[in-house]
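F.,

This is the one I mentioned.
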């Protein structure tokens, strides 16, 4: 079971993984929001709908503007979209795992229902792995991200890994990024 949330940029790595698994004799199932059904099925892969569906976002343009707002976007996305539909996403993913007889659940960091389903089904042999594929999740002193709220960060790139290692440690110390700085700055 491969569960993802987000744009096509989030979906495509899961499609590539599903195709590679299929080539090796496995039977992957991709769970995503309903807007990705056609893309998944076009690859000849089975699809399971995972809430929230497109209707939950309301007007697409307004929802995208809110989600991409540099300050309020993350709160809107997590609080008003993902957490508001956590029960439905859990029900969808749990049913898909049960129906497929899934033994492995690989999920996007925003599929908050995945660790809950994995914990519930662990006794049945379900193993869970979260896969972080976005630059904002994998912070690196060697290839520092430029985030939307701070485009000026691109001017700091020439200062090199030593500077960015210190910057990431400082960010960690004030709670700006999760995990230990050593986990992220390599």
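My design for it:
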């Amino acid at each position: 079971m491969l569960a993802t949330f987000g744009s096509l940029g989030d979906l495509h790595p899961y499609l590539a993984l599903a195709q590679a698994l299929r080539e090796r004799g496995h039977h992957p199932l991709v769970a995503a929001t309903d807007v990705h059904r056609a893309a998944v099925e076009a690859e000849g892969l089975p699809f399971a709908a995972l809430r929230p569906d497109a209707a939950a976002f309301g007007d697409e343009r307004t929802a995208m503007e809110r989600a991409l707002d540099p300050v309020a976007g993350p709160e809107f996305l997590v609080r008003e979209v993902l957490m508001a539909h956590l029960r439905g996403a859990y029900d969808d993913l749990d049913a898909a795992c049960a129906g497929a007889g899934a033994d492995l659940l690989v999920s996007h960091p925003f599929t908050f229902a995945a660790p809950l389903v994995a914990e519930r089904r662990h006794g049945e042999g379900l193993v869970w792995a979260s896969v972080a594929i976005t630059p904002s999740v994998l912070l690196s002193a060697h290839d520092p991200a430029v985030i939307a709220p701070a485009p000026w960060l691109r001017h700091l790139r020439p200062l090199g890994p030593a500077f960015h290692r210190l910057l990431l440690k400082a960010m960690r110390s004030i709670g700006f990024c999760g995990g230990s700085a050593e986990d992220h700055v390599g």
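Strands lie at 2-3, 30-32, 47-49, 104-107, 127-130.

Talk soon.
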